[in-house]
């Protein structure tokens, strides 16, 4: 019933790191894994056309680290045949634990191509994609959806049931509509609707910024798993803290503020090609520095310093006098 052996014996939810484009690369996943507590990892979304027509061995987004397991490849596109071909190529060359279908991304460019959340308008095509991928692998296939185009219980349940009947093993929902962005709070009751109705495990996602919200999401929705995105960018150790809190323990003290940047820079150097190292580090710092009151100013200053080593040297000075506020770890700026 639970793919990837995810069912926790004490009936607590399993914890997953959300897929985030240009952020949940192998170095970041390894950093999260090193702090323990995360049960499931996703790659950032991978374009099926690129997987089919480019050399996957050279693709930095397909790199895997050591401890980021089970690791599920998230796929985005709209042509069922390309999905099937992409999965067959990945099956030959890589060792992913399964495949996740992106039916939730609402970015402008993704919608213009008819990918991501656009497929929630085309349930038959979405189901065809699920069937095509399931026919190309024996591994579990999951999907990540949103509320859809409006908050409509019957439409949401109908879409989710159709995907499930097409062969899905697990479903994640981020309960906001395509138009909502991060403006309104996520509607957790929609997670409950799916958790109550579907025969497969449902993962709740959206606005979990700390251990207390994780507990509340599980209690209010009965979700099998909890997926955390932005708060894990701010606190890559959040899964350790949520796990400890949910099992009745104390929240451990945070690491020194410079620890995660130092470690991520080291992993980026090890696992990513040189031409994208600095950019990826800066993209993450934009989020991480929001832990601190003067984070925006720090970020502006650090961005101007060339080279990873130069950036780290200044960060060591700036973060020496900083400390973390208690949870929730909520970002105030988005990109
Ligand atoms: C910078 C960024 C990139 C994202 N990229 C993806 C992606 O590649 N695939 C996907 O399914 N969702 C993507 N998302 C959505 C997240 O997976 C998640 O659903 C959303 O952030 C809500 O969860 P949170 O409140 O825990 O952040 C992205 C979100 C952010 C902030």
Number of helices: 14
Cα-atom Rg, whole angstroms?
19 Å
Count of beta strands: 8
Name the hetero compounds present: flavin mononucleotide
Shape: globular
CATH class of the largest domain: Alpha Beta
Helix residue percentage: 40-55%
Mean of residue pLDDT values: 96
Distance between the termini: 37 Å
The share of residues in extended strands comes to 5-15%
Main beta sheet: strand number and arrangement? 8 strands, parallel
Structural class: alpha/beta
From the structure provided, what is the oligomeric state, counting identical versus distinct chains? single chain
Describe this structure in words.
The chain is α/β, with parallel strands linked by helices and 335 residues long. It folds into two domains: 10-246, Alpha-Beta Barrel (TIM Barrel), CATH 3.20.20.70; 259-319. The protein has helices at 26-34, 48-53, 80-93, 108-112, 123-136, 153-165, 188-197, 211-221, 230-234, 238-246, 259-271, 274-288, 295-304, 308-319; strands at 14-17, 41-47, 71-76, 98-103, 141-148, 170-177, 202-205, 225-228. It has an eight-stranded parallel β-sheet. Helix 7 (188-197) links the parallel strand 6 (170-177) and strand 7 (202-205). Helix 8 (211-221) packs across helix 10 (238-246). It is globular. The model has no long low-confidence stretch (mean pLDDT 96). Residues 18-21, 23, 44-45, 74, 102, 104-105, 144, 174, 205-208, 228-231 line the site of flavin mononucleotide.
């Amino acid at each position: 019933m639970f793919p990837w052996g995810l069912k926790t014996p004490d009936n607590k939810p399993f914890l997953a790191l959300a897929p985030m484009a240009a952020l949940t690369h192998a170095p970041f996943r390894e950093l999260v894994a090193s702090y323990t507590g995360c049960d499931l990892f996703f790659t950032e979304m991978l374009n099926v056309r690129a997987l089919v027509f480019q050399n996957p061995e050279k693709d930095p987004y397909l790199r895997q680290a050591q401890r980021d397991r089970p690791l599920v490849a998230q796929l985005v596109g709209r042509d069922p045949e390309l999905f099937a071909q992409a999965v067959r190529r990945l099956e030959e060359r890589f060792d992913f634990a399964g495949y996740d279908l992106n039916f939730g991304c609402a970015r402008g460019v993704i919608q213009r191509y008819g990918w991501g959340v656009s497929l929630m308008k085309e349930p038959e095509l979405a189901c065809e994609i699920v069937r095509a991928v399931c026919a190309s692998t024996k591994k579990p296939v999951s999907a990540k959806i949103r509320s859809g185009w409006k908050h409509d219980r019957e439409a949401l349940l109908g879409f989710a049931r159709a995907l499930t009947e097409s062969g899905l093993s697990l479903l994640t929902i981020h309960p906001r509509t395509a138009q909502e962005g991060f403006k309104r709070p996520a509607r957790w009751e929609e997670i409950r609707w799916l958790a109550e109705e579907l025969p497969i495990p449902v993962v709740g996602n959206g606005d979990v910024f700390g251990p207390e919200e994780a507990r509340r999401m599980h209690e209010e929705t009965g979700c099998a798993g909890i997926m955390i995105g932005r708060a894990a960018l701010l606190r890559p150790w959040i899964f350790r803290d949520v796990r400890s809190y949910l099992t009745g323990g104390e929240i451990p003290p945070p690491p020194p503020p410079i620890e995660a940047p130092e470690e991520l820079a080291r992993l980026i150097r090890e696992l990513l090609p040189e031409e994208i190292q600095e950019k990826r580090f800066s993209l993450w710092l934009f989020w991480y520095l929001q832990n601190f009151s003067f984070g925006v100013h720090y970020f502006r200053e650090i961005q101007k310093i060339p080279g990873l080593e130069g950036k780290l040297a200044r960060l060591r000075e700036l973060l020496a006098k900083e400390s973390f506020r208690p949870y929730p770890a909520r970002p105030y700026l988005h990109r």
